[in-house]
């Protein structure tokens, strides 16, 4: 059996991967999608001995029939099943230790996140120093937006119609008409 530190590191990795991408997840159970991500990120899937299909089969074997999630204990069983295939030349306990080393202490890799574009047209269009006319007044000398203070006509919401420019002229018009 693995020592206490390895089991704690495995459980920490299990919780991190179980909660990855799911705001409602508690970290006590892991989905098949997150198990496949764990296997990919921890390099359990090597393309020769272990493929994504092997990972899905191992997950299905380890979970309860009616469930879509696995607990930490079932996770350990799935890793044991995969260790036999991944390290087929080793003894069973040594293979399990090797696969636990691959997983212990690992966290989800966030890849494919969209990066901001700052070249060509985007840079030219978002450079506030090149703005002219009315839009120039909406930014300070450092290029930071002034918000509502940068607008010339800030609505006061005090008239019959918001932003009415002839505010206070109604009484004058009524007197002139009479």
From TrEMBL:
Residues 137-154, 168-178 have a biased composition (Basic and acidic residues). SUPFAM superfamilies: EF-hand. One of its GO terms (cellular component) is cytoplasm. One of its GO terms (molecular function) is tubulin binding. Its main location: cytoplasm. It is found in: Cytoplasm. PANTHER family: P25 ALPHA-RELATED, TUBULIN POLYMERIZATION-PROMOTING PROTEIN HOMOLOG. This is Tubulin polymerization promoting protein. It comes from Eptatretus burgeri.
């Amino acid at each position: 059996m693995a020592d206490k530190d390895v089991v704690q590191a495995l459980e920490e990795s299990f919780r991190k991967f179980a909660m990855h991408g799911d705001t409602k997840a508690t970290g006590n159970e892991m989905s098949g999608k997150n198990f496949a991500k764990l296997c990919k990120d921890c390099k359990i899937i090597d393309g020769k001995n272990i493929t994504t299909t092997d990972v899905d089969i191992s997950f299905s074997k380890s979970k309860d029939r009616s469930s879509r999630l696995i607990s930490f204990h079932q996770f350990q069983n799935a890793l044991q099943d995969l260790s036999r295939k991944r390290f087929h030349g080793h003894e069973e306990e040594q293979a399990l230790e090797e696969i636990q080393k691959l997983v212990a202490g690992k966290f989800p890799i966030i890849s494919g996140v969209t990066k901001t574009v700052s070249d060509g047209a985007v840079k030219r269009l978002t450079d506030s120093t090149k703005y002219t006319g009315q839009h120039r007044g909406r930014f300070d000398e450092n290029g930071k937006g002034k918000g509502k203070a940068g607008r010339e006509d800030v609505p006061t919401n005090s008239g019959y119609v918001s932003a009415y420019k002839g505010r206070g002229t109604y009484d004058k018009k009524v007197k002139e008409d009479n």
